[in-house]
């Protein structure tokens, strides 16, 4: 039975609390575009993108207007290009990236993800060619994003790939030095990459996906914050417990998930493609009122990064997952709470005042979605230190059988405490200090593979 109060709560989510569908992402399998002839590969790829995605922006906007829900980003995720272009070298990979960028302009989409390689157990010649191409491929394009999966729970951590990732991030930052190193923001390094993630920069169309699949990412930090504020205001004194807060988050996540799946299925139906998953992730924006950090403050963590921060984000992440799982049988992707420093004004402020350190941020990532995301670092952070930071984050994912990732941005010419701003959804932040630069280089340079943990032996 529909109740007036629940209807009004949903309306308020859209009008006052920044609820939106953050992204509809069309996953496309491009393996049938493979060809030893590069131009033929590019032509087949363009034709497939146009065939399936020519109406994506129009349909998403139409559905958004009809339902009164803003669909913020329209995106495409493709099969990892290292697999599609396995017969080609680095120069060809750059040409493919530029063709994808041109297609994004033509189709009116915000980003195309998939300049990617799966290198968690070894590096094929085509994967190495793609990695070598990434600084130019991502640095010279506007809409193309990439990712590297360097670890899994079943395979362990490929430290050769981790070291290459550190070098690639450094090169990307230098290639886009005139823009503050923003190229590094378009590359994500993963452990246990999901095949159906709709969020950039790490979205791909995995090999287990269909030919064309529509995945949707919903976000609502502002909705959760206001729900908690109303609950606390209605129960003054010591009447509430953390259990009550967790229950309110769970109920709110349920409502958000139902809205997201409704929009996603409608867009998929009109496009004539299969609906894939709903990713219920609390993904913040730089806008005040749309922040994970603000939720933690409402929960009583006045200094983000202080004692209790890890427990609070763990509780938030768990409640979001429970609410989403109850609302939909199609929950997938990452589905949890993101803590991208530059994209969340409260987290960025905590980094600026020193309460949120790199070490504490890493601890918090062990219990929430993704990992060290949109973290601005000093420009003189060497590639081996970047690799060591990545290795730490990958270890969290591998040992805990969860997805973790790094999106690290060494800002050329900037030191710890200075600021960088990319604008828009990328936001701004103070540069976070990195201790003991270069002191882990010997460990990184051993290379090889950190073996899979014993808990990977589950059969």
Kindly describe this structure:
This protein is an alpha/beta fold and 459 residues long. The chain has 2 domains: 15-191, Anaerobic Ribonucleotide-triphosphate Reductase Large Chain (Alpha-Beta Barrel), CATH 3.20.70; 219-443, Anaerobic Ribonucleotide-triphosphate Reductase Large Chain. 45% of the residues lie in helices and 18% in strands. The protein contains 15 helices and 13 strands. Strands 1, 2, 3, 4, 5, 6, 7, 8, 9, 10 and 13 form an 11-stranded mixed β-sheet that branches. β9 (372-378), α14 (383-400) and β10 (404-411) form a beta-alpha-beta unit. α2 (38-53) runs parallel beside α5, α8 packs antiparallel against α9 (242-271) and α8 packs parallel to α10 (292-298). It starts with a helix and ends in a 9-residue tail after the last strand.
Give the structure's gist in a few sentences.
The chain has 459 residues and is of the alpha/beta class. It is 45% helix and 18% strand. It has 15 helices and 13 strands.
Structural class assignment: alpha/beta
Q: So how many helices?
A: 15
β-strand amount: 15-25%
- Residue windows where pLDDT falls under 50 for at least 5 positions: 1-5
The helix content, as a percent range, equals 40-55%
> What is the level-2 CATH architecture name of the largest domain?
Alpha-Beta Barrel
Q: Tell me about the biggest sheet?
A: 11 strands, mixed
H-E string: HEHHEHHEHEEHEEHHEHHHHEHEEEHE
Reported by name, the CATH topology of the largest domain is Anaerobic Ribonucleotide-triphosphate Reductase Large Chain
